[in-house]
Backbone:
């Protein structure tokens, strides 16, 4: 009998047996659930290392696949480079063979051409000899014509002006001088060089005392020499005085002028035998020049003009220098950036080489299927598989 509260139940009552059977079944199910949960926890703890090791194995296989892909790309690149090199070598050999063939053809053609040219030159030289004979005859007539020109005073003056114009045009920029310029006093100068103040514009006038010089050369007696020397002094003094009076104007021209002698022989005669005339010309602020010394003087004037123009352009020059300095700084900065890029490229190439070496080592290890000897930093901790229970 079982008494629960005020109720009494008999073991012979079917309801009691049903309740007892249900309670027993519930307890049995609960025990089974507990056993199942415990077994599931144990199975999960056993499967966790296996899952970790399978993940590690998948990672190693992925790395091996990547290494094989990189190795295949490297082999393809090497194959392409070798094919390109072979093609370039064949092209170079064909080009050199064509050059040699062309050179041989050109040499043969050149030899025949030079032979024909030599024969032609021989004929030309014979013709040149004939023309030289004709030119000699013509030159004799030109010398007589030059003598006629120099014997005429006006023609001789024009000859000196033309020579002066040629020298000045070669020595100075075209905008730095003027020809046949009229001054404020109504006089016309052969050439006016526009120098900055000081000294200011300076006049160059051509004079050619040829008659007096030729009289000195032709003098045969002491009397003739004395008369010729006096005439030469008078002629030179007149030229110096005319230039000093006509072409040295205060406030308009420089404090001096140049007298151009178109003959080196007359210039040498003047400085060699008439030094007092040279000193008188200095006192009159007239400097006598020949074609050679005039060129040297004009080159000095050219330097003065260049210096004056550079002073005028000082601001522009400084601005250009600042711009040039900025451009140089930009170039230096870009060179530094380019150097950084080169260094990064070098580091990337080194990294690619290291990765390729590492991939090769890993591929060799995988090829031997010796996974248990992989290093800890590459594969992690190797967890051994548990043995199944018997």
Residues:
């Amino acid at each position: 009998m079982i008494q629960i509260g005020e109720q009494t139940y008999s073991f012979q009552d079917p309801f009691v047996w049903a309740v007892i059977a249900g309670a027993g079944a519930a307890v049995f199910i609960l025990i089974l659930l507990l056993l199942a949960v415990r077994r599931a926890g144990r199975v999960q703890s056993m499967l966790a290392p296996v899952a970790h090791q399978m993940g590690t194995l998948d990672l190693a296989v992925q790395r091996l696949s990547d290494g094989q892909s990189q190795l295949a790309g490297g082999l393809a690149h090497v194959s392409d480079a070798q094919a390109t090199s072979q093609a370039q070598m064949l092209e170079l050999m064909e080009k050199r063979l064509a050059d040699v063939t062309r050179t041989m053809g050109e040499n043969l053609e050149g030899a025949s051409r030079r032979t024909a040219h030599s024969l032609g030159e021989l004929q030309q030289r014979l013709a040149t000899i004939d023309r030289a004979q004709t030119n000699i005859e013509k030159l004799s007539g030109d010398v007589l014509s030059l003598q006629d020109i120099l014997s005429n005073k006006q023609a001789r003056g024009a000859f000196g002006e033309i020579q002066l114009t040629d020298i000045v045009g070669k020595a100075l920029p075209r905008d730095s001088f003027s020809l046949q310029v009229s001054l404020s006093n109504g006089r016309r100068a052969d050439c006016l060089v526009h120098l900055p103040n000081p000294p200011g514009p300076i006049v160059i006038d051509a004079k050619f005392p040829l008659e007096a010089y030729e009289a000195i050369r032709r003098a045969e007696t002491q009397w003739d020499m004395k008369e010729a020397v006096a005439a030469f002094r008078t002629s030179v003094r007149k030229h110096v005085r005319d230039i000093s009076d006509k072409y040295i104007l205060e406030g308009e021209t420089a404090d001096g002028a140049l007298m151009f002698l178109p003959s080196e022989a007359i210039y040498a005669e003047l400085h060699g035998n008439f030094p007092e005339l040279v000193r008188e010309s200095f006192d009159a602020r007239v400097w006598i020049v020949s074609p050679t010394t005039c060129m040297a003087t004009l080159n000095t004037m050219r330097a003065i003009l260049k210096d004056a123009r550079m002073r005028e352009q000082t601001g522009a020059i400084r601005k250009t220098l600042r711009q040039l300095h900025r451009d140089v700084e930009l170039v230096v900065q870009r060179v530094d950036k380019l150097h950084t890029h080169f260094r990064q490229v070098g580091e990337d190439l080194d990294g690619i080489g290291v990765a390729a070496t590492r991939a090769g080592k890993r591929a060799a290890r995988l090829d031997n299927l010796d996974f248990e000897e992989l290093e800890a930093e590459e594969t992690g901790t190797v967890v051994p598989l548990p043995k199944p229970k018997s």
